[in-house]
Amino acid sequence: MPRIEDAALLAGAGQFTDDVSLPGQAYLSFLRSPHPHARIVSIDAAARLAMPGVIAVLTGADLVRPG
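^ thats the sequence. predicted structure below, dont judge the formating
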């Protein structure tokens, strides 16, 4: 299948999701353990939730919770 996006990318005219800035836009970041195969037994998200602009702090437990 021919790639049609190469010319724009090589000319510096490509657009990526990081190039888009909309009013009220939110950002997502992931924090991973620096220790391979570490067992994370608890996460205290209260300090992060208290920071200005933080909408939510989600953990693995939130992903498996019904609903």
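The chain has a mean pLDDT of 86.
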